[in-house]
Write a structure and sequence with these properties.
- The chain has helices spanning about 10-30, 35-45, 55-80, 80-100, 105-130, 135-165, 170-175, 175-190, 205-230, 235-255, 265, 270-300, 305-310, 310-330, 335-355, 365-390, 395-435, 440-470, 475-480, 480-485.
- It is about 80% helix and about 0% strand.
- The chain is globular and about 65 Å long.
- It has two domains: about 10-205 and about 260-485, Growth Hormone, Chain: A (Up-down Bundle); about 205-255.
- It has about 500 residues and is mainly alpha-helical.
Length: about 500
């Protein structure tokens, strides 16, 4: 007997599940950027200090990134739909609490609560797609749409944040989650139910503590690298502690009877390639989004809303890459034929921008549009293919853990990319001003951006070279998830 939903599930309910999960994915991704735009207004309204304001971002990132593995385990044990629904309700309530904040502490606490519920919501949603869509071509289309929403979420967050802050209030950057979340909760009642793991064993407490502590320490170190520098004792100490905890976590998981993250999930060749590809892609792309935000506003003089609308090009291209390219090719070619070209396309977009100078003319048509199209198509291809590959061929027992690990890879990549590339850009700009005393601040800024994007270009090239050998046998692994699940024991 199959332990997941079969293709006999009514089509309407299957595709309704895609709509609801995509709405939830939009909430999780959008919330990573929408508050960034609102933060200056929130700081002024609540009287935050410059030193404490970063907790509006960090509290969410720490809770989300640190608790993802536990969220994946809970999703499997309780049931993906139940966890998904509880996550939506909790996320909506935390958003309302944050919007009503009367002091910084209340806002920071609400942001942390959002992260807690997002840590269950994200892997549960991805797991629902995996258990609902088992036929390869339908799964390809479903994960294409899911990836498009994820890829476009950051851009949508910037646009929505600018519009809501400018025309209403910063509070609506949080309140907006409530109606979306509640509509998704209503829709979730129509999503086919899955069966929780009946004998999932006891929660791996040592693994949970080590994994949560390790991920939280690494994410926090990346967040602290921007204000304090990579050489600071605080950052190096946090990184060392985080890596030590993750090494201990790996050792514990290899011996645990009921591990939080079974090592077989990570040690599978093509799945490891998918995790590596998405991590490196997010490192590069979050540096790219940072560049686009600062360059368009500080150098080109765009308003926050105009800067956000510029990224619509990237979002549209991501939609094409994930649905038209990756979705249609899913199951017809191996993942290497989609992921590696996607990485190279994104690298090409970065390369275009490295040619910019402060005096470049016709910037939008000659530089920004080509870069936005190439990076968008590449991102869409990579997210759609890696998300599907991350859970392909897995037993129902392991899908929650794999979904959580995939989301954790994205979170680590985003945190590292933002900190690393922003630090490189700032250092390069400072050095440029010191070496060129006659240079304008705009020229120094552009030099810093192009230096960081050159590193992002190199990261994407390295990603293509490193993942290609791991993915060359991916077609066989991805084409047979149903067979492995059929042979899996029923829990």
């Amino acid at each position: 007997m199959r332990d997941n939903m079969t293709d006999s599930t009514p089509d309407r309910r299957r595709w309704w599940a895609l709509l609801v999960v995509s709405a939830a994915q939009l909430l999780v991704v959008l919330d990573g950027t929408i508050v960034n735009i609102a933060l200056p207004s929130a700081q002024s309204a609540l009287g935050m200090s410059d030193a404490s304001r970063q907790w509006a971002i960090t509290a969410y990132a720490l809770a989300f990134g640190g608790l993802l593995l536990i969220g994946g385990r809970v999703s499997g044990a309780v049931g993906h739909r139940r966890t998904f629904t509880a996550g939506l309700i909790g996320f909506s309530a935390a958003s309302a609490l944050g919007g009503a904040a009367v002091n910084p502490e209340m806002l920071f606490g609400a942001r942390a609560l959002q992260g807690v519920f997002a840590a269950g919501l994200a892997p549960a949603g991805m797991s629902l797609l995996a258990t609902t869509f088992t036929e390869p071509r339908e799964r390809g289309r479903a994960f294409g749409v899911f990836a498009a929403v994820g890829a476009a979420g950051s851009a949508v967050g910037l646009i929505a944040g600018g519009l809501l802050t400018e025309y209403t209030s910063w509070r609506w950057c949080l309140y907006i989650n409530v109606p979306i979340g509640l509509l998704a909760v209503l829709g979730a009642t129509l999503v086919p139910a899955d069966r929780p793991i009946r004998d999932g064993g006891r929660l791996d407490i040592p693994g949970a503590l080590l994994g949560t502590g390790g991920l939280a320490a690494v994410v926090y170190a990346f967040n602290q690298a921007e204000p304090h520098g990579w050489g600071s004792i605080q950052v190096l100490g946090l990184l060392a502690a985080g890596l030590l905890l993750l090494v201990l976590f790996t050792a514990v998981e290899r011996r645990a009877a009921d591990p939080l993250l079974p090592m077989r999930v990570l040690l599978h060749r093509t799945r490891a390639g998918a995790f590596l590809a998405i991590t490196l892609m997010f490192i590069a792309m979050f540096g790219f989004y940072l560049f686009m935000s600062y360059y368009t506003q500080t150098v080109l003089g765009y308003s926050p809303v105009q800067a956000g609308w510029t990224l619509i090009i990237n979002a549209a291209a991501a939609l094409v890459g994930s649905t038209v390219v990756a979705g249609r090719l899913h199951g017809r070619v191996g993942p290497v034929a989609v992921i590696v070209p996607g990485l190279l396309a994104a690298a090409g977009g970065m390369l275009v921008l490295t040619r910019l100078t402060a005096d470049s003319a016709h910037v939008l048509p000659l530089y920004l549009v080509p870069a936005l199209v190439l990076t968008g198509v590449g991102l869409g291809c990579v997210i759609a293919s890696t998300a599907s590959l991350a859970i392909a061929g897995l037993r129902h027992h392991d899908i929650g853990a794999a979904s959580a690990a995939y989301n954790a890879a994205q979170q680590l990549g985003a945190a590292l990319g933002t900190a690393l590339l922003n630090t490189l850009a700032a250092s390069a700009a400072t050095s440029y001003l010191a070496d060129h005393t006659e240079a304008t601040r705009a020229a120094a800024s552009v030099h810093g951006y192009t230096t960081a994007l050159t590193v992002a270009f190199a990261i994407l090239l390295a990603a293509a070279c490193l993942t290609a050998p791991l993915l060359t046998r991916g077609r066989t692994a991805e084409a047979s998830p149903a067979r492995e699940e059929e042979n899996a024991p029923v829990h």
